[in-house]
Structures are given as C-alpha cells and as structure tokens.
Amino acid sequence: MTAESGTDLSIHSGYLPGCIGRIAELHGSFYSRHAGFGVLFESKVARELSAFCERFDASRDGLWLAVRRGRAEAAIAIDGSEAATDGAHLRWFIASDELRGSGIGSRLLASALDFCRTHGYRRVHLWTFEGLDAARHLYEKHGFCLTSQERGRQWGYEVNEQRFEWQA
Fold first, then answer.
1. Number of CB atoms found within 10 A of residue 122's CB
2. What is the pTM of this model?
3. Which one-letter DSSP state was computed for residue 157?
4. Residue 155, pLDDT score
5. What does the pLDDT read at residue 7?
6. Residues 6+ apart with CB under 8 A from 128
7. What CA–CA distance (Å, rounded) separates 117 from 46?
8. DSSP secondary structure, 3-68, as one string
9. CA-CA distance, 80 to 74, in Å (whole number)?
10. What is the Cα–Cα distance from 110 to 115, expressed in whole angstroms?
11. Dihedral of alpha carbons 8, 13, 14, 19, sign
C-alpha cells in the first residue's frame, strides 16, 4: 500500500473486506444514473467480481483500490486467467463521484498496465459501451485502441458495446 502525499488517500493492492460490495455499489450507482442500468447490471458486477476474488491468483491477477478513510473510492482489476489466449482482461474500473476527475483513474490504469508489462502480458482488452467519452479518452491516452463495436446485451441492456485493446 502507498499513501498519497498530503491526502488521506492510499492505493491498496489486493482484496480488502467490503471491497466487492463497494465496487458493485459504485458501478450500480454510476451506471444507473448515466445509462439507466439496474439490478441485472449491478448483480452481474457483484457475481463476476466475487468469482474473480475467490479464484484470485497473485501470479496472474491484479486488483487495486484507491482507499480513503478505510473505504474503497476507486478500483481497477486485471484478470489474467485467459491472458495466453485472449490477452489479459481489464475489468471493474470505476471511481466515486468524489474522485472522478482527480487523476486517480489515470494512476490506477497506469498501475494496471505496469502490472501487465511486468507479467509479460502483450495484450490487454476491455469491454465498455459507446457514450462514456471521459473513459474512452482515458483508455486512448494510455494506448488502447477501439477494435470492435456491435450492438449487444452483455450488461442486460442493449447498447453499442465496444472492445478496446492495448498491446505492449
């Protein structure tokens, strides 16, 4: 864990009690307001994040949390379970309203990509959807490129799903 100079914010690597629920809450709240997503989306986040945490292997996976006063306020994960075939999967990237726009997202994304370089992951992909312009800007700033787009319902609602990829 590293403390941020002059703030009560720290970056924690790995699971912390309560982080699964908090990450699901951050996703549920943000995507409800910005995309109209509901219980299907939030429960999918909680279910898949829980499964990831249960099978977490530090030799291939990463989870980083921005923590303030003992509470996760931002998160990002690298799922390396399919890295050999499809590349590592960047997932559950979110920041609270209080931290959004503070630069913490860029720092978490840089940490995740440093982890990928260190672990020899030559490709990283993520799934998002059209209309999240600030997130897209951040992905592209860090070297991700849009590789495909199609209508889909993987989050329970029809949207223009987008796949971005980064290559070392």
1. 12
2. 0.92
3. S
4. 77
5. 66
6. 135, 136, 139, 161, 162, 164
7. 28
8. EPTTSSEEEEES--TTHHHHHHHHHHHHHHHHH---HHHHHHHHHHHHHHHHH--TTT-EEEEEEE
9. 20
10. 9
11. positive
User: Would strands 123-129 and 88-95 be described as parallel, antiparallel, or unpaired?
Assistant: parallel
Q: Average pLDDT, whole number, for the chain? A: 93
Query: Rounded to a whole number, what is the largest CA-CA distance in the chain?
Result: 45
- The C-alpha torsion from 35 through 135 and 51 to 2, rounded to 10°, is -130
Q: Are 149 and 125 in contact (CB under 8 A)?
A: no
Task: Name 95's bridge partners.
Answer: 74
In this predicted structure, what is the pLDDT of residue 92?
98
Residue 48 reports pLDDT greater than 80: yes
Name 58's bridge partners: none
Q: What's the rounded mean pLDDT across residues 87-104? A: 96
The Cα 88–Cα 116 span in angstroms is 8
Q: Which residue has the tokens 């590789």?
A: 147
CA distance 79 to 125: 10
Positive/negative CA dihedral, 8, 140, 148, 29:
positive
Q: Residues with Cβ < 8 Å from 161, sequence gap 6 or more?
A: 127, 128, 129, 149, 150, 151, 152, 154
